[in-house]
Specification:
Layout: E1 8-17, H1 28-43, E2 47-50, E3 69-76, H2 79-87, H3 91-96, H4 98-101, E4 110-116, H5 123-136, H6 151-160, H7 163-169
Antiparallel strand pairs: 1-3, 1-4, 2-3
């Protein structure tokens, strides 16, 4: 049995390959934006949760995708709430300068997927969704802003998957 649509939140993973180590002076403007942008996310309408490294205010010290790759993993009530934060807040300033700080990715670097309310995705789960998007393209299981699916579509997709396959993707 799947959860009702209103019981779904949107999970989000973004990976970014650093051009320079975070302690390099060329990265100082990015590092200076971390606290205000994270505080803005925490206060944004629809924000639920974001991954942070224990004892810090961000996840930049976690490197599950490689020594030069930082991750952002967060949960939002709706896709619109994430979109508004990403493109209609102080976060946009960082987005506009991303080429100064991060390499251009040739494959997908952002993935979205629906999760039950109360579930906090793990980094492994998030990286699995990104791998799924890279291997198979957008689907109700792993998608992007440009190719999104609703929570209802994702729930229907999971219902259509035979039980053994559903267990493998959870």
């Amino acid at each position: 049995m799947t959860a009702p649509v209103h019981a779904a939140h949107l999970a989000h993973l973004n990976v970014a390959t650093l051009r320079h180590p975070l302690d390099d002076p060329r990265m100082a403007p990015f590092v200076e934006l971390l606290d205000p942008v994270n505080a803005s996310a925490d206060a944004a309408p629809g924000f639920v949760w974001r991954l942070v490294e224990e004892g810090t205010n961000d996840a930049t010290g976690l490197r599950p995708a490689g020594d030069d790759v930082i991750v952002t993993l967060s949960v939002w009530e709706t896709q619109e709430a994430l979109w508004d934060f990403t493109y209609r807040s102080g976060h946009l300033q960082a987005m506009q300068r991303r080429r100064e700080w991060f390499e251009r990715h040739v494959e997908a670097h952002l993935v979205l997927w629906w999760i039950p309310v109360g579930h906090l995705p793990t980094v492994d789960e998030a990286l699995d969704r990104l791998a799924d998007l890279r291997a198979h393209g957008p689907s109700p299981r792993a998608f992007t802003f440009a190719s999104s699916y609703t929570a209802a579509e994702a729930a229907q997709h999971l219902q259509a998957v035979p039980p053994t396959q559903a267990e493998a993707i959870n």
